Structure formats: C-alpha cells, structure tokens
C-alpha cells in the first residue's frame, strides 16, 4: 500500500454511497431490431466486419429482471443502464415514438424499483440512430436538435427516473471515430473533427440540462466523461510535458471546461488551435453556443467519471502511427499521433492484456484536479472502472482475484479523495455481467457475473462475492 494512506484514511464509505454495476443498452440488450427498434451504425458495421455479433449479447431485453435479482442478491443498490435512442425514435429525429420500445424501459425501471436498485440512466451510450450517424452524427447540427427533443421526451415519459446522465464518454465516441479510426466510418488523425464533435456534443448536453432544469423535474442530471490523467513520461523533458498537455486537452480538458465553465480557458484554446493546425482544420465555437453552455455549466448536479487508466506521454514529431490492440495480445498496441504525442508505459507500471495501464493513483489525481480547477462541481460518481480479462470458468467458478485487487486499489484512492474533501456519491464497476466490447468482442470480459453466451447462464465470479461484502458493509 502506498505510504500516502495513513491510519486516519477512512476505511468506510458514507452510508448513502451507491455500489453497483454498469451496463450499456447496445452491449447488453440484444434484440437489435425487435419490436420496432431502429438501426444503429454498429449493426451494419459489425455484420460487415464479421468478427462478432451484437445478438443476442446478454439478452438483457428478456433477462433484465433476473439480472436485477442478481444485483439485489449481491448487495448492489444501483445500476447504470442506458436507453437505446433508436428503440424510442427508430429513425432518430423524425417520426412517431415507438410504443413497444417505450414500454420496455417502463418495465425495466419498474423492475429496478421492485428490487431496490436505483437506475442511473444514460441517454446516449455510443448508439446514435443510424440515419443520424450517417448524416454526420453530432458534426451535423440537426443531431443536436434531435438529441434535445429525444431528451425532453424521455424526461416527460419516465418520471420514475430521477438520476439522468446525458452522454457516456464523448471522448471515446470522438477519438475512436475521428482520431484512432476504430469505429464505424473511422478516420485517423482528424483532430479538428474530433474536437468539433466534442464541442457539439457538449452543446447538446447543455441544451438537455437546461431543458431538464426549466422543466422542474425533481431529479439530478449530469454527463459522464472518460478521464485519463496525462503525465509527462519524463517530467523534466519539456517535449513530454507539452505532449501531456496536448493529450489532456484532447481527452479531458475541452470536455471539463465545457462542462463546468461553459467555455474554454485560454490555455485550452491555445492547445485546441495547435491541434487543429496539426490536422489542417479548424473548429467553430459560436457565441450563441457558449452562452447556452455557460448557463448550463452552473446547473450540472453531478459528473460521472469513467476511469480505467492514465497515460504517460512522450514528445513525438513523426507521422500518425496507430495500432489498436483488439485481441488481448499484450504489447501490440501503439499510439503516436502527429501534433499530440506518443503514449508510452513507464517501466514497472503494470498493464492488462489489452495494454491498458493499471494506475489507480491517476483516479485520485483526476478527482483532486476537478475539485481544484472546477470548484462549482457538485458531486462525482465513478460511473465505470474495471478490468478486462480473459476470464475462465473452471469447476463452476471464476477466480478473478486480479480484478478484485484492481477494484480494491481504486476504491482505496476514492476513500482518500473523500478524506481530502471530494464529494463522491457512488461507484459502478464495469461491468455488471460480461458484455461484448465494442472493438474487442466477447473474449474481453469485465463482469461480476460470468456469462455463458451460448446458454445465457450467469455464474458469479469471486469478485461478485467480494463486492457483495464491500457493498453491504460499506467497508474495504
Ligand atoms: C467504456 C465504455 O469506454 O469502456 C464501455 O463506456 C466499454 O461501453 C468500456 O465497453 C470498456 O471498453 P472496452 O473497449 O474494453 O470494451
């Protein structure tokens, strides 16, 4: 244990702390075109790739009640779910809402209530309706209008939901699509489009927040960002320091400034200019956008942080050179982006089979950074954190002690942040049950509950039993 933890560091979480598991509609529901659901871009993309199918996923569309029964039995008092936009509005912005899709979520939320598991509901988890996606998604301002209309519809339709998040991981959605090229219609190194889409999605978030607050709904609303602390590989090397700042703006800072300031700090703008020049493009932030975003910035009730890893940045002045480790062959990933830097691993820092850096202290550094830089934040939730593994079911059980250690270390740093005065409301492990991973398929497992994807049988892993004790006692 790090010496930073003293005997005074609390070992107990607050009484009202939420412990749960996280899901996303597309990754769990299956039923991709059932009961009037419209297509998303992933449907055709995955079919063309032929690597794996999103059907039936975990068959959550039919099995949500038994999965919620597992949540209850394993001491969880919260669950993250998302609404599939194209189940409600099959074509996105136009047309009548789909009654069967609407009914599905009423039933899901009723089951949550009956099991005493609070639903934390995200409106958009990487699954824009296909028609909107094909027309530029959030680079097209019509999608911002469509998102606001969809959000208003959900706020009115689902009064049983009092915990809302607008977007899940705008950074992942934009980086994977415009910089890393690993998502449908992907491009590489297109930094200005990535930044423009981030801004437009934050404008859509702001408009949904204003709609929620103007509507006087009695709940909370926020956004979920995938944050990574960006450390210079060598803090004494100015090029590494600059690379860390570049990557910080690309992944974190534009989004955090937009969330809590409603505009961009001079330092952020300077790096945005630099990134745009590097990809020969520009971004447009309209004055009207900023005035909407500034109003919304004071109204967020909470911020969700998805934290998996941090990064160590080296200076890099070559051509963009990327290789996505989508197979779990350790050491095959490469991330060098012109104008940004090179992501490297400091010696001695452990990584997963997918080359994700295991660095729990980064979560603490991020929480402290937010509380210092954005004192108008109200409450943080750790809305995702977890470890992808090639879990094996052996003799009816899964020994995932490595995952337990990972989660325990992160929870310890959360306690440290609480000791330092940061308001943290809950922790959701990614993921509740094993789910497919967008670019890695079914062999990267994260769940508390092992899923046999042939039979859909669930088996609690060692981590589920461990987490049950933590959730029930609120102690590590
Ligand atoms: C987050 C997402 O990016 O991380 C999830 O919100 C995702 O949807 C999770 O599955 C893990 O990422 P991956 O690429 O390992 O599936």
UniProtKB/TrEMBL annotation:
List the Gene3D superfamilies hit by this protein, alphabetically: Glycosidases
Hydrolase in keyword set:
yes
The GO biological-process annotations, alphabetized, read as:
lactose catabolic process via tagatose-6-phosphate
Q: Which reaction equations make up its catalytic activity?
A: a 6-phospho-beta-D-galactoside + H2O = D-galactose 6-phosphate + an alcohol
InterPro entries for the chain? 6P-beta-galactosidase (IPR005928), GH (IPR017853), GH_1_N_CS (IPR033132), Glyco_hydro_1 (IPR001360), Glyco_hydro_1_AS (IPR018120)
Instruction: Print the keywords alphabetically.
Output: Glycosidase, Hydrolase
- Which residues does the Swiss-Prot or TrEMBL record annotate as the active site? 384 (nucleophile)
Family indicated by similarity: Belongs to the glycosyl hydrolase 1 family.
Q: Which NCBIfam families match?
A: lacG, PRK13511.1
PANTHER family the UniProt entry points to: GLYCOSYL HYDROLASE, LP05116P
Q: What is this protein called?
A: 6-phospho-beta-galactosidase
Source organism per entry reads Collinsella tanakaei YIT 12063
